[in-house]
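To assess whether ligand presence alters the predicted conformation, the chain was also submitted together with iron/sulfur cluster. Input:
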Amino acid sequence: MTTITNAIAANSAATLATIDAESLRQSARRAATVSEQAAAPTRWSVAEVAELFALPFNDLLFGAQQVHRDHFDANTVQLSTLLSIKTGGCEEDCGYCPQSAHHDAGVKAEKLMELDEVLEAARAAKANGATRFCMGAAWRSPKDRHLEPVMDMVREVKAMGLETCVTLRMLKGEQAQALKDAGLDYYNHHLDTSPEFYGKIITTRTYQDRLDTIGHVRDAGINVCCGGIVGMGESREARAGLIAQLANMGPYPESVPINNLVAVEGTPLAGTAPIDPFEFVRTIAVARITMPRAMVRLSAGREAMDDALQSLCFLAGANSIFYGEKLLTTGNPQAERDRSLLARLDIRTEGYAR
Ligand code: SF4
């Protein structure tokens, strides 16, 4: 076995040496050293990220896999389960979101779930193999009276031995600190897209509002879960712009969900032409190369992907999935199908938490 592994490694080096994409070699080398440069992280220009996107598909995937293997066990993924603890009626107008009160997507506004219901879902997630439990609430920003029950949820879910993550949208600094004090591990807040394309998708809050919330989360010492959505009609340059924003955060997010638009009837983005699946895989690969130590998560839109496409995403460096339960208001492949796919790919999941 060791001989085979050594042979593959030697062949990999030889193959890499023959790829005439010099930019890939430079980018992969640079990406591999980013993690050692915490004090002076490398900055990526949008043009450099766009160069990665433009590589021949096989070269890009090969480079991403190399970087992935430098930092992770390539045959393990982490499972997160997401529960919508407060659905619908959101004041924001995000063009993709059925929970926005600005759109008529048939999602009714609900109250915050009771603690017992949340804990029951968390127990089920843990029994199904999830190591992280994410709780999402459709608020523009939480009022202080909302925060106390959410903090109770964080404390109790954490006491079960699960990592905790919440997404409550915009946060003030003292709210982030309160969540940290309750034991929160991760806060999810997406950039969604590039600064230039952002205004076509959301008008009720600014890109800077999002960066400010992420700054408060960082300052409080909470891990950042931050990514975006592709397939919203944006250009490749906009996708490169999103990845550059994420990679240049300094430090870049610990978790980077890459969502594929689920075009829901009743939202402004219904009817948007789907993105080429290989372009989605490219986005995963570019995220992996530019953020070598991040957990890159296959998130919304996975239900519509067949097994072969998901496998390509793992090859491109995705190492986390949303699993089980419902992914906020859109569907998620059933846990059974996921388990079957992971088993066919010899991908392990147990005990993989970060
Ligand atoms: S994405 Fe979040 S902030 Fe935007 S409308 Fe939906 S629930 Fe509200």
